[in-house]
Predict the structure.
Amino acid sequence: TISELAVKENLEYLGNVGPANIYGFNYIGDDRPQVGMIASDVETWCPEAIKVKDGMRHVNYGAALDKALTFQS
């Protein structure tokens, strides 16, 4: 899933898991509600969870959440 801020709108902070900020949002042009992270945030504390495809950053949520949980301990 594309995790660039530029393709999201109606961001609402929902909480966090360690350093992982979780947001509610929808993609521009799509009214369906989504929940997720923002790639630029994740990149600061877990760059290995970021992949770039077609110029857009994607978050590997499994890797990001695994790392975020290590901050909770």
Summary: Residues 16 and 22 are 5 Å apart (CA to CA).
